[in-house]
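Work Package 4 report. The design task specified in the project plan requires that, given a folded chain encoded as structure tokens, an amino acid be chosen for each position. We show below one input record used in the internal validation round.
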């Protein structure tokens, strides 16, 4: 079974930064396009950033220029560097393949942006 474990969330003030990490196990990993997703209260889960096996990236317009996704295939990790955080970034953040595999969703990590 594939396991995806997110970490690094927390409470941060507007304008602050956080770095999220996703650790994968039970998968080859290096061949898959990976993504970070988030779900805010009352909203649908949305993709915020994706990174392909060759390192190419794409971002949602709402985070472009503020977030950076990266991967380390040797460590089987995906990171999301989040800068200039806004209140509307508050959500539970998840990693998964892109498109996601439903059974692989983990517990996510909570990011709260508040003063």
């Amino acid at each position: 079974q594939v396991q995806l474990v997110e970490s690094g969330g927390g409470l941060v003030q507007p304008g602050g930064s956080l770095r999220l990490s996703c650790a994968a196990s039970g998968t080859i990993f290096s061949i898959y396009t990976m993504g970070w997703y988030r779900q805010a209260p009352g909203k649908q889960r949305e993709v915020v950033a994706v990174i392909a096996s060759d390192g190419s990236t794409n971002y949602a317009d709402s985070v472009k220029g503020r977030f950076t996704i990266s991967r380390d295939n040797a460590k089987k990790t995906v990171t999301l560097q989040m800068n200039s955080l806004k209140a509307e970034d508050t959500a539970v953040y998840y990693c998964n393949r892109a498109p996601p595999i439903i059974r692989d969703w983990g517990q996510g990590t909570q990011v709260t942006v508040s003063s």
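The beta strands are 3-7, 10-12, 18-25, 34-39, 46-51, 57-59, 67-72, 77-82, 91-97, 109-113. Validation will be extended to a larger panel in the next phase.
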